[in-house]
Amino acid sequence: MSDDKDYFADGLSEELLNLLAKIPDLKVAGRTSSFAFKGKNEDLRTIGEALSVSHVLEGSVRRSGERLRITAQLIKVDDGYHMWSETYDRQMADIFDIQDEVSEAITEALKLHLSVTAERPTENSEAYSLYLEALALSIEFNEDAIDQGLALLNRAIELDPAFAKAWELKATYYWLGGGWAFDNAEAQELTFAAATKAPELDPSLNGARSFASTCDPDNWNWRNEIEALETLVKAEPDNVNAKLILSYDLKNTGYFNDALALADRAIELEPLAAYAYLRKGEALSAAGRREEAQAAWLKAGELGDELAYSHLGADQLIAGNDEIASDYFDMRSRFNGEDPQISRSLIQNARNQETGKAFLYEWINDRLTNPSNMTETVEPYIWYLLFGYLDDYFAGVRKLRSEGSGWNNADILENLGMIFRASGYASHPAYLEFAEPDGLFDLWDTRGAPDHCDKRDDAWVCQ
User: Fold this and answer.
1) What average pLDDT does this structure show over 112-116?
2) SS3 for 188?
3) Total structural domains in the chain?
4) Is residue 247 part of a domain?
5) What is the C-alpha to C-alpha distance for residues 50 and 42, in angstroms, rounded to an integer?
6) 76 neighbors 55 (Cβ within 8 angstroms)
7) Which of 76, 363, 427, 460 has its CA 20 to 30 A from that of 385?
8) Residue-number span of the structural domain to which 68 is assigned
9) CA 355 to CA 21: how far, in whole Å?
10) DSSP code, position 461
């Protein structure tokens, strides 16, 4: 309700959500699912059913300079009964006291015996306000939001260079933006710089320590990354982002069932999060459970994730269902305001028995000539995978890997290869060419055989 955008209110809401989630025996729906009802006049029973919760905390924030007016009320969803309500007229410097009072009032109203206290990550109220806005923008996480959020965090850090949580959130921005908002190699360097700074200031920050381990340019391998993320998930069992990042990694390294279990747990915490269903579909597809993967991706698409339609189209194209594939690619194009005829025409021409292969090669090579951004550098290779030209696909992987060690843009192709393992990706001889230098053999020997490989005569065989 402030004159500026409501990012401050969203950030404060998430801080309260995180605070309440620390209370034992209190199940709190995640931010993506909770925020889905922001500004909507939905019946409380509908909200309770969608989120599987029995109470709703709602309220408003009005800010004018350093003055705040915050209202909050706790309501039972079955009968609309107000169990508690309060209005706070305070200064911005009192924001932590307000968080504590709300948490204590809710635990008392729900007859819970334990409460928690809001952390004081900074004594600078302006820096904290900027942090809250950046925290809210991380929910949107498109390229504009990334630019705005990082600018806010940089200003917060200027005001308080010892603001460890701001450094940690900055590392999270870079980590999650790798592969699309930032070139992967650049993302690794930026994440490592921010993630190593945060625990120097506050050793209790689990996320920053884990991110630092996952992107250490001098000591990166799959085993180190997965062990760091497993440590984070154990320390923060309700951290949905950590679960889905680990699910992504476990799927990429062949532990499909473990990846699926993490995605399912994320959906329990975030029942309306599109990206959780996207990850679930990826784990199912990698495990060969194609129809279940399609159902998960359709749900992700319904919840607003356009990438789900690309996955659906890719799955159908690999299966030879070109018309259905074209329909799904059309949906993705309409999401992005692109011409849907481009992919439809490509599929029709590339399938021509006499001229299709030559057409596809010329089309891909033309787009790989003088690419202007990372998407144009990587995306054309994907069509080799979808049409079954795996030798050429791995040539693309090899080329992109040659451009740098650690995180590199070949990660995108390797990720898609595992998602669409039905293409024959993991049984291709070139697959194991990259497994040993990345530390996959070490991981498999230590953690146990992945779901798609076994060891025969002291050598790994994958399918």
Assistant:
1) 71
2) helix
3) 1
4) no
5) 11
6) yes
7) 460
8) 7-120
9) 59
10) E
Please write the tens of the pLDDT for every residue from 352-402: 999 999 999 999 999 999 988 888 889 999 999 999 999 999 999 999 998
Asked if the structure places residue 314 within a domain, the reply is no
Using CA atoms, how far apart are residues 414 and 425, in angstroms rounded to an integer? Answer: 9
Please report whether residue 382 resides in a domain: no
Kindly report the CA angle at 278 between 55 and 226, in degrees rounded to 5? 95
Domain of 106: which CATH number?
A: 3.40.50.11830
- The residue whose two tokens read 């200064």 is 91
* Number of helices and strands in the chain (H, E): 23, 5
C-beta of residue 280 within 8 angstroms of C-beta of residue 261: no
* Nearest Cα residue to 460 out of 439, 227, 287, 259: 439
Specify if 94 maps to a domain: yes
Which among 314, 378, 369, 377 has a CA at the least distance from the CA of 343? 314
Nearest Cα to Cα of residue 90 among 105, 60, 70 = 70
The two tokens of residue 201 are: 């200031």
How do residues 41-88 score in pLDDT, each as one tens digit? 889 999 999 999 999 998 888 888 888 899 999 999 999 999 999 999
Alpha carbon 121 to its chain's center: 25
State the greatest distance between any 2 C-alpha atoms of the chain, in Å, as a whole number. Answer: 75
Least Cα distance to 259 among 283, 278, 226 occurs for 283
Burial code (b: 16+ CB inside 10 Å, e: under 16) for 245-268 equals bbbbbbbbbbbbebbbbbbebbbe
The whole model's pTM is what? 0.89
Residue 176 pLDDT greater than 60, yes or no: yes
State how far the Cα of 381 lies from the Cα of 374, in Å rounded to an integer.
12
